[in-house]
Amino acid sequence: ISVGNVVNGFERYVFSFGDGCDTPPLDKNLLGGKGKGVSEMADMGLPVPPGFVITTEACKYYRNNKRAMPEGLDMQVEAAMKVLERQMNAQFGSIDNPLLVAVRSGARVSMPGMMETVLNLGLNDEAVEGFARQTNNRRLAYDSYRRFITMYSNVVEHVNPRIFEKELEKMKEEQGVTQDVDLSADALKELCQRFKALKLKATGTPFPDDPREQLVRAIRAVFDSWDSERAGAYRRFHGYPDDWGTAVVIMTMVFGNKGDDSATGVGFTRDPSTGEKRFYGEFLPNAQGEDVVAGIRTPQPVNELQAVRSGSDLPTLEKTMPEAYKQLMETAQKLETHFRDMQDLEFTIDKGRLFMLQTRTGKRTGLAAINIAFDMLNEGLIDEKELIMRIEPEQLVQLLAPVFDPQEKKRASPHLAARGLNAGPGAASGVAVFSTEKAVEMKAKGVKCVLVREETSPEDFSGMVAAEGVLTMRGGSTSHAAVVARGIGKPCVCGCGSLRYNREENFVRVEGTGMVLREGDPISIDGTTGEVYFAELHTTPSEVLQVLIDKTKLPEESKTFQQFNTIMTLADKYRRLRVHANADTGRDAEVARALGAQGIGLTRTEHMFMDKERLTDVRKMLFSETEQHRKEAVAMLLKYQKSDFVEIFRAMDGHPTTIRLLDPPRHEFMPHDEEELQQLADAMDTPLEELLRISEAIREANPMLGHRGCRLGILFPYLTEMQAQAIFEAAVEVAKEGKTVMPEVMVPLVTSKNELRHQKAIIDNTAKAAFERSGMTLPYKVGTMIELPRAALRAKEIAELAEFFSFGTNDLTQSTFGISRDDSGHFVPAYISGVEYPGEGQEKIQILDNNPFDVLDQDGVGELMEIARDRGKQSNPNLKTGICGEHGGEGRSVNFCHRIGLDYVSCSPYRVPVARLAAAQAAI
Amino acid sequence: ISVGNVVNGFERYVFSFGDGCDTPPLDKNLLGGKGKGVSEMADMGLPVPPGFVITTEACKYYRNNKRAMPEGLDMQVEAAMKVLERQMNAQFGSIDNPLLVAVRSGARVSMPGMMETVLNLGLNDEAVEGFARQTNNRRLAYDSYRRFITMYSNVVEHVNPRIFEKELEKMKEEQGVTQDVDLSADALKELCQRFKALKLKATGTPFPDDPREQLVRAIRAVFDSWDSERAGAYRRFHGYPDDWGTAVVIMTMVFGNKGDDSATGVGFTRDPSTGEKRFYGEFLPNAQGEDVVAGIRTPQPVNELQAVRSGSDLPTLEKTMPEAYKQLMETAQKLETHFRDMQDLEFTIDKGRLFMLQTRTGKRTGLAAINIAFDMLNEGLIDEKELIMRIEPEQLVQLLAPVFDPQEKKRASPHLAARGLNAGPGAASGVAVFSTEKAVEMKAKGVKCVLVREETSPEDFSGMVAAEGVLTMRGGSTSHAAVVARGIGKPCVCGCGSLRYNREENFVRVEGTGMVLREGDPISIDGTTGEVYFAELHTTPSEVLQVLIDKTKLPEESKTFQQFNTIMTLADKYRRLRVHANADTGRDAEVARALGAQGIGLTRTEHMFMDKERLTDVRKMLFSETEQHRKEAVAMLLKYQKSDFVEIFRAMDGHPTTIRLLDPPRHEFMPHDEEELQQLADAMDTPLEELLRISEAIREANPMLGHRGCRLGILFPYLTEMQAQAIFEAAVEVAKEGKTVMPEVMVPLVTSKNELRHQKAIIDNTAKAAFERSGMTLPYKVGTMIELPRAALRAKEIAELAEFFSFGTNDLTQSTFGISRDDSGHFVPAYISGVEYPGEGQEKIQILDNNPFDVLDQDGVGELMEIARDRGKQSNPNLKTGICGEHGGEGRSVNFCHRIGLDYVSCSPYRVPVARLAAAQAAI
Ligand SMILES: [Mg+2]
Ligand SMILES: [Mg+2]
Known about the structure:
2 copies of one chain form a homodimer.
Chain A: E1 2-3, E2 6-7, E3 10-11, E4 14-17, H1 28-43, E5 51-54, H2 56-64, H3 73-88, E6 101-106, E7 117-121, H4 127-135, H5 138-156, H6 162-175, H7 185-203, H8 211-225, H9 229-238, E8 247-252, E9 263-268, E10 280-285, H10 289-294, E11 300-301, H11 304-310, H12 317-320, H13 322-339, E12 343-350, E13 353-361, H14 366-378, H15 384-390, H16 396-400, E14 403-404, H17 406-412, E15 416-419, E16 421-424, E17 427-433, H18 436-445, E18 449-453, H19 461-466, E19 469-472, H20 480-488, E20 492-494, E21 499-502, E22 507-510, E23 516-518, E24 522-526, E25 531-533, E26 539-540, H21 543-550, H22 559-574, E27 578-582, H23 586-594, E28 600-604, H24 605-609, H25 612-623, H26 627-651, E29 656-660, H27 674-684, H28 688-698, H29 710-715, H30 717-736, E30 742-747, H31 753-774, E31 781-786, H32 789-793, H33 795-798, E32 804-808, H34 809-817, H35 828-833, E33 835-836, E34 844-845, H36 858-875, E35 880-884, H37 891-899, E36 904-907, H38 912-923
Parallel strand pairs in A: 17-18, 18-19, 19-20, 27-28, 27-36, 28-29, 29-30, 30-31, 31-32, 32-35, 35-36
Antiparallel strand pairs in A: 1-2, 2-3, 4-5, 5-8, 6-7, 6-8, 9-10, 9-12, 10-11, 12-13, 14-26, 15-25, 16-20, 17-24, 21-22, 22-23, 24-25, 33-34
Helix pairs in contact in A: 4-5, 5-7, 6-7, 14-15, 15-22, 21-22, 22-38, 23-26, 25-26, 26-30, 27-28, 30-31, 37-38
């Protein structure tokens, strides 16, 4: 007698599903994911074994009341079992005609560490005989019984399953057989008795014969498993609250192991790799669920197309059970129409009859996600907004990266030399070069090359630009090589530790093999997989880039481009955040525009300094102690920088362009080897010893926390002046060409208002002078990076002078965590993967969910950003706020930026599409 | 007709003082410091030239109303002038009997950059003749007139005074005289005309002849000077609000230049160097105020005692004008009794008659401050609380430092070789040693030595302990040498850039001189002044330490100790903050206790590792890659650490002792030279190349942000375990001796709760095991440093596990500012002293008020501390909070810690008295 949420005066904890039952409330939070899935399928009239769900509320009660079952639950379970008995025409606990059930856990989200499944519950020494008679299959009965004893003992009473496996092996030996299926019913019967003895020995208590006791203990085991250490740890890492609790799903057993007209299987309603609209699945005839997982037998393809494509000659479900197959296809179709997404299914065929055991949204690759989303949009299953939400921003990267043909890879497999970190997606191929000079030389000759270095430094920038891709032997996915490569869209494999560079003889060898690589040898790297081949593999730029940048393809020739374009158009329709790019050259700026950037959020002037032909002047400017030398160098650099800015402003016509003043510590510009030092000494007309003294004097213990950022421009105002002059003269020049120039000058590493005040005075004076000389005045903005905690805290004062804030989340992460990005490889990987937990009851402890240099740390760094935004707006309500740095192109971080109301994100040009999509998702 | 604050219906802006006037409200905020001083003296009946004050309110009105004078002000000034005219029996603007006045600015605090003084206002070409007749002194009249033209043109109209000086020189040349006083009245008259012509040429406007115009313009000039760039900049740096405004003080002129019975002078009511109770001052006969400042003539001592003591044979005021002198002494006495503090006075004697022009609290040295405070307590002028407030905490350091006898210094002056930064107060003398080994060797031989190094590293710790003092050639007052020296109470001079170390031949030379220092040569350093002598000067420990630590003096034998002791006793009576010490050895702990520490707030275990005999084991433990070696090393170190902790716990009987787990990056422990590396390789049974590889692998780009702090203990749990075991075994051992042990284990550099969770599990497990083994359980605490911004932000979670927070403000300052302490020397000194301001109207811009590593940055670092305190207490109301690190012994920082409600501060043992006093002042 149940009304709403009350049954006989008690809260309702049990909901039956299936034939003749009311549909339970289809609420994942109440029924768990699994319970909702089967209830919903039953409601749709699909073939689901009847059963019931014990709600998460019961689990909550149990946890909050010292493991006491809620009052009324026993009666509700009893009543639900009665319904099952009626439906199945069998009795739970009966010896002659037993009803067997499966007990499964099922929280809102699937969660490792929780009890999974107990099948065949309800069997005991007597019921097994009744079951044998019922099915007329004694072997099935004892096979099911021994499986039940094993599963129950393991998942309910935590007995190590190895002891049962060993006994099974022993029995097969005794019987002189090799396969489980060759064991006779009698042998299995004997095995069941031995299993029960083993269980008694292991736990000190006999195996419970009473099916009602089995059921209650299985339910309690599910509840208890919610609080297992592993499940708890999993929740803590994902930030799931402990009080969700788990539901319990109890279903009548169906048997895939009743013979050749029975089977069990799993499948996807569409191909999870490609997204193609065809059922993709595997099954095992005459088997129970756990056999598929155990991997003892090779699963068979569900349909003929799949068999042909995968070259399998195993019989398909389509062939062997055409009726059930047809029913499965119809069911899949109905589920897709109902759930409007690709489904991941579990099914069992019991003597030719199909039963659905589970349905949930299926995981898929990036390509598949995109294809499926578009197909479903065309099929009318989903609308535009849903299409946007269906594609992971990160998956777009695959659309943009150059690719190796899989055939090519197969061919080249003997030349696979090493594997490193897949630090910059895409494929690159060419001849190996071991220095930036060589890379530039090759580029000049029109020869494609891959730069191979122990590790890269800022001086390698032009080499990285010249090369097709970059391979390093040291450094993680946040090393200089990796960061720069992603920034300029180059494939990169880094930290390839098995490679050894022999400096004297200038070759690379692969440790533990005889393989050797010399300059000029062919090499290919796959930055998507981390593979390194000592061979030349052909690559093609992605179709999207062929259309947008190389213009070697027309839009109408590429479906991939059209999809990309549609996604971007839709994303732009919904997003609020502006997306800018980090671009250091005119070329970067053009790429950024082609990929949809609405401005430049960061131009790093120092990258312009690293050019070979300028470096000597840069060094003269930074290290000369004579006014004359310095002035000459400044004049030269002014010319260079101006021409850079001219190109950038041209490309950005009508779009804001943020230029950051010189940022890195001076020592980065010092030559590293004796020869170059001598050259510089000559060029500077300075004794080598003097130069060495200067080099020593500016060396820093912790350069990241040293004399850099605006601290340079404050002590050496001519640096700021030169850069500002280059900016404003370039701006005037481009404006006179009739373009709209919107320069924004950004001061790095401030901690106080007075620093900005000093730099702004130089910038404003220089602008005024430049405008007066040219007879033309342009609007411009002066703003600041917020990249140190103190800047965030003092944002109110700083915003009295700043027209914009750009959060430099790389530095802000470094300072907030006190972790140097360059050194983080020593411990951050272990922090993420987790270390052994020295305390009680928990194996591992994870310190970080993500690398905070990859995914913005919302709890720490993010709070400082919110503080800065609030305080900044207090004194300057028109303050423009944005983020530049690696996080600006990472989906979760972009989402956060949207949520806290920033105006824009800025990321490397090739991440712009990712940011556009992420911004749209955040807005929807 | 004035009633209260209203005069004839207008607000009252003018208050007259002197004979027959009501006493103005004695409010510094209204009258300014100077105005209040003279008004109060007039009220006391002391001889003050009559005058009046225009209040700061008038200035505020003027500033807020586009430089319009408030209505009614002109009439009120007119009325006040009338009062003066009556009092002086002269008329302002009269040709025959002119009234002359002085106009001075005077804000709440004296402020550089504001207009100072215009004397003799009221003169013009006609009035000067009247004045000559009036005084019967034509030379006086024209001398006053030419001074007036100069001062007025300069301070009111900003004419460069150099043009007048040059003209004066020219005139002296023309007249063939060398001294100003030798110019005749006619020559001066001619000079006045030339000055007026120069003024006209410089400003384009004639010198104003109308005294009323002169007065109005001088008043406006005072108001305007409040908004001069320099005054504005000064206010910004000191955080004084712009809206205070300045008052104007107008007084009738009195003349110290009327002849030999006239004089002008300054003085202190007690000796500002020693505090001795005797008037100390200087005067010039026949002079006006600015002559004393200009320094053209040598000022004469006021009294005979002073003359004798300073060896001066110039006539004293006591001798030459005994009546005026007597009056001055009586006045000084009255002022002290009235203001209950030592006063800094200005006076003028006009034809034998004394006039007081200013009185304010006098600045004094530390020793003087203490002596004066005690004298005044004894005289009943002040009470206990006032005594505490009268002593700058920093001044106590002088009571504790060893000293050179001034006679010794005089004798040694030919050997003065260099001056460096006075980084660690006190004096040290001995033979020079250039290495830690040599220092230790000398110590063992009982020879006192001074360690002379280019710079020091952690390995030099034992050398610094062995030496009497430390001298370095590089590094600022926050360098390793300076920090450690202050920590262990050693005199230190650092950054002595004129010294050059010749490594090959092992000697030091003084650049630009022929002086050379070899190992074994005598050397003395004065860490209080920064002086370095290449000679041996005798030092004595301060009397306080002789009583408290060396026990070579009885308390009753030392007045200094008694004063110290009284100050400390009083401080302890009033303070709320507990004061702990940072101590790394039993000896440190004893010193700390003797100086009043109530616990240890920081024991740095790594300092224990640096001991020569342990270092090899430490290195084995940190770098061995074989389990066996590591275990042996750990066992050895366990023994060492335990014995250290036993000594510390013994010394700290009954007082909490906080021990920090290993903190520095491992590379700090790597040998630096080839030879030592080879030795270690041998000891570790490892090839040198392997060791070099390890050394390379653990080298970090930014070690401060690297693999250090708890990041070590998490990846190498045996480090934490060994240290915890040593702590608890030592605790048990000392507890069994009947002492009360209160260990607190502190985890460094956490950024998240899970890090603490990991380390706490090891600590708790180890404690449990140690207690079980010993059959004894002790209470202990586990807490954490809060030294990174993220830890402060996540304090709520962290405090769920932490029993205490200790703010590590050194690291917290580094990370909040993004400034490495080691590298801060490159720009922080310029940030503090100010850099050229590139904008309008202001010469310099200061970025930092103080070095944030010396004085806690309350605006940034301090806010993070408050955030951490609030959030920590939210989840753990019993959370104990404190500060360790350099700031714990700095007065302003201690005050802040009191204000935000911390429980304790911890500082180096020799700073404990400073902290005790600062804590008391904060509480009062
Ligand atoms: Mg930055
Ligand atoms: Mg620290």
